[in-house]
What does this fold into?
Amino acid sequence: MKKFDVIVVGGGHAGIEAAHASAKLGSKTLLISLNKKRIGIMSCNPAIGGVGKGHIVHEIAALGGLMPQLCTKTYIQARMLNTRKGPAVRGLRLQIDKPEYSKESIKELSKLKNLTIVEDIAQEIITKDNQIAGIKTRQNICYYSNCVILTTGTFLNGVTYVGRETDSAGREGEEAAVGLTKSLENLGLQTTRLKTGTPPRLLKSSINFVKIEKQEADNLEYLFEFYPHKTTNPHDCYLTHTNEKTHEIILKNKELSPIYQGDIKYQGPRYCPSIEAKLISFPHKKSHLIFVEPEGADSDEIYPNGISTSLPLDIQEKFIQTIAGFENAIITRPGYAIEYDLVLPQQLKHTLETKDIDGLFLAGQINGTTGYEEAAGQGIVAGINAHQKNKNKEEFILDRNESYIGVMIDDLVTIGIDEPYRMFTSRAERRLILRQDNAFLRLTPKAYEIGMIDQSMYKDFLEEKKLFEEIIKRLREKYSNPQLIQKFGDTTCDKDAIKKLAATNLSDRLIQNIFADVKYYDYLDREHKEIERAKKYRQMVIPKGFSFKNQPGLSNELQEKLIRYNPKNIAQAGLIPGMTPAAISLLIFKIKQFDNC
Ligand code: FAD
It folds into this structure.
């Protein structure tokens, strides 16, 4: 009998991370994926990271995951975004060689001795008394396990659109997965559909790079992983813009778009809209930015980031050729939109196991998220928890006060989604604490405890932690915080000043960590106190008769939201989108006053 400890369905970004974590921890794991050669394919943009998304990848590194290693091996350009802003909202973004990323994923997975990979389509979930028993595939093979993780991306009943032409597909050129949604629904799970889209790809040699602006890369000394890395940036990216002529063509033909026609009924990512949607939403904008990014080091294709579209191919060709540098551009693959099934994520626990089907875990786009990083962040949590469950060990839950992955999962399972969910730093109440420079301090001890971090890295981590604590202590004994800020530089990190004051050679990430710790000292102190306070009051019941209306100090928007969501306790109130720690403190104060009346 084909029996495994854990079965993962889908070799995308969630599936890779889930299979890697489960096998690394020692569970006999099976990965079933449609096409072995397309494991780790990046369906859309050739980049990983950015503000918010990059924070997730740092956290995956701190948890011992695979994505950061794959990034180091396959990046072709590195940039640190938002360097003029504070350390909490900076984001590392790497341009990735897409074909190499997929090859490296397959290579790394095949090194795992506990992992078996088969090429097939999972079609049916086998259960026994609401307990997962395994998966039946299209080839009529049954694989048995008490823990199954589904990471099916955009493949469940996927339908692609180019103008009014539609196709049943999981993404361009790959068949959709049909059958599994029905099986999920038969188990009582509620599903829905969402939409996303991608731009056309252009032939590199048909682009006139002389006419467009080169985008400078950054020389960095660390990437997502723990150990330092001096970047080399062998490939250039460029910038160009749409113009009034482009807009005229798109708007004149907007009725040919499947969204306008009403063929696509479901919600797409609000923060990553198609160019058609941008022009309709922002009619006064005369131009939109396009990032011109290579699909890979040796690829002859360019990804024009910012003009995702599902207009007919001839219209795509027309509007593309109005853009500076693209006058003679040849489209190698048309842009398209895709609609797909997903499972409403409120049906999950924080471990990403479904509440009602014991042993069934879901991760990635199937939970309503969009993005490789969001998928991988869920994958690692699902993989760890499937292993823990299999071995009767404790659940592995990340809190929203300790990680962006925790924020994402908490948002998904408590509030749910009504559009594809992507990570922004604004989703985290404690973003001063959740920085990329301190991801290892936040999460590595927790990951080490369960076996995700090896002994030698943990030893190096402990040494770095000790050094960090000693330097901070020494500096605080010698200087007041304002003096330190002055010496370090107020807004940007003065690396040399910090090195000099620390009187030792420090890695760049550690320097950033020390800088942020000093710069935010007062705020961090307050945030930690607020976390403790909020923990204490989490279960505080909002009494019957307490009115959210006309509470001085609470904005009208928050009052309205509180009335709408009607939370039963402080923990629930804290999950309302836009709720701030200050508003929660005020609410606690008002409830105490109310109780004393
Ligand atoms: P995927 O990476 O899609 O992987 C799913 C895997 O599961 C595949 O390997 C597939 O073969 C396998 N599979 C599916 N069903 C079965 C089955 N029944 N049996 C066996 N194997 C199965 N992200 C952004 O951040 N921004 C964007 O603008 C954006 N646009 C996108 C546009 C398009 C057209 C597409 C397709 C994706 C886009 N993405 C975008 C999303 C990004 O590609 C996904 O969010 C990310 O890849 C999701 O990861 P995943 O692991 O959940 O799924």
Observations:
- Residues 9-15, 32-35, 43-45, 121-122, 151-155, 170-171, 177, 180, 196-198, 272, 338, 364-365, 370-372, 375, 422 surround flavin-adenine dinucleotide (CB under 6 Å).
- The radius of gyration is 25 Å.
- The first strand starts at residue 6 and ends at 9.
